[in-house]
Design a protein that fits this description.
Strand content: 15-25%
CATH architecture of the largest domain: 2-Layer Sandwich
Strand order of the largest sheet: 1-2-6-3-5-4
Number of strands: 11
Helix content: 40-55%
CATH superfamily of the largest domain: Metalloenzyme, LuxS/M16 peptidase-like
Number of domains: 2
Shape: globular
Order of helices and strands: EEEHHEEHHHHHEHEEHHEEHHHHHE
Radius of gyration: 22 Å
Distance between the termini: 60 Å
Largest sheet: 6 strands, mixed
Structural class: alpha+beta
CATH class of the largest domain: Alpha Beta
Amino acid sequence: MRNLNFEKLITKTGVPLYVMNLPFAQSVAAGIFIKAGTREERWPTEAGLAHALEHMSFQGTKNFATSKDLSAYLEEVGGGHNAWTASEGTFYHNRMPIPYKERGFKILGEMLTMPTLPNDKIPIEMKNIVEEIHRAYDDPEHFLGILDQQFVYGNHPLGKLTLGTIESVSAFTQESFIEFRKRYYHPGNYTFFAVGNITSQQALQEFEKILFEPDNIPMNDREVIPLSEKGERTFVYRKQLEQVHITLSAPLGKGTEKSALSASMFATMLNGGMSFPLFQEVRDKRGLCYSIYAGTSRDSDVGEFTIGIGTDPKRYQEAIDVSLQLVEQCSNDEALLKKAKDLRLGQLALRFEHPGQILRSAASSTMVNGCPKGYDDFVKEILDVTIEDVTTAVKTYLKPEQFRRVLLVPESLEMKS
C-alpha cells in the first residue's frame, strides 16, 4: 500500500513544510499558501488588493525581469505555474518534470521574496483585472454568484468580492502592494508544500534556499464572526436575459464542524452526477433546465450550501419547488448516502494519482483546517458520515424557510407576489 499521507517538517525559518513522496510520479508539484485573502482587505480602498497582488507577483522578480522571463524558465522544459486567491488565502504553485524540479522551487522563492512590482506594469495589469470584472458581470452564472455572495453574506468579511471593484482596482499603486505585503507576507502566515517524486529531505533543502529572516510575527489571527440574521429571504435582479438564473442558498456553520462535512456529503447525494436526484428529477424527468448543481463552500466561521438552476421564466417556481422537495426527500436516504460515499471514494482515488491535484487539495484543506489532509484523512472523513449526521445537518440548516433565493431574471418578467 502506497503512503499517500503528508510528512510534516519545519524549515529553519519556522515555516511548516508538508511533503508527500510519490516515487511513481514523473513530476514534482510545489506550492506556497499564504494566510491572507480578500477578507483581510480594508474596504473600500483595498477592495480586490489580495487578488491584484497575486497578479503583480507574476510581473517580474529580481532575477527574472519580466513575466515572460518568469514563465519561460518553467515552460521551456514543460512545466508551468499558476495561483489563486480566495477569501481566506492565496496560493502560488507550479509543477515541473523531475529533472527540472529545482526550477519550480526557485520561482516560488523569487515570487515570494523578490517581486519587483514594476510601476509601469501596474496600470496594464489592473486594466486586465477590470476586464476580468467585466467578464464576471457579463456572464449570468458568474454574476449570479456575485449577487448570491453579497445577499447571503452582506457586510460579513466573506461578503467581500475577490475581484474587488473597478474603482479600487484602477487606483492601486506600488505602495498599495508593498503595504499589503508588509502586513501579511511573512513566515508566520506561510505553509510550504511539495508533492511528487521528491524526498522530504530534498524538499526541505529546496525550500530552505528561500532566503528571509525569521521575524517572529505571529500568524494572522482572525476573529470568528457569525453571520448576522436577516429578514429578507428573496432578492431579484433584472437584466437582459432569456432565462431565470437561481441560487437557493443556506448558511452553514464553521467549515471544521461535522455539520458542514455532512452538508457537503448531502450535496453529493443530490448532485453526484447524471444518475443522482437533482439531474434526474429537475432536468431528465421534467425538462426544467439544461444544467443544475448543488455544492457547499467551507470557511473558518461560516459556510454555504447552494443549489443553482437556470430555467424557463414560465417555470422557475416549479424548478425551485422541486429542488426544495428533493432536499427534504433525500435527507434520510441511506442507499443514496452509500452511493455518494462510493462516488467520493472513487474521485478521491483518481485525485491522488495526480501530484498537481493533490497539491491543490492540500492548499484548500489547509485554508479550512490549518494543515493539509492526506488520503487516509479524507477516507476517514467520508466513511465517518452517517445518515443521522446528514439528517441532522439538513434539519439544522436546510429547512425551506432558511434558504435565501437569489433570482437573476429577464427585464420583462412579471413575477408572482
